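Pasting as-is:
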Amino acid sequence: MPFTGSCHCGAIAFVVQEDPPTRAMQCNCSICRRKAPLHHFTTPERFTLQTPIDAVATYRFNHHIIAHHFCPVCGVAPFAEGQGPDGPMVEINLRCADGIDLDALQVQLYDGASR
């Protein structure tokens, strides 16, 4: 069953064509410490952005391999795109996903600050 999500104001919306995840990853790198996302990674083929890409703001830093997308209206960052260890990936911020029980997620800690 697909799951959906959006930024706070709804200007950015997406659908992920897979079952809602039960696990998430929490990173401690410089940007994740500040934004506090709960990450879920998927493939570009499973992700559909329902918003025109030109309505999305993007921030890149460090090696510039991840496009951190955020809403220029409310500032919330519901997803990112880039190159993962296994090729192209889309990162979903599960805090922006509809119907996910965040307290029930099994959260894996990732030491991005040391990378």
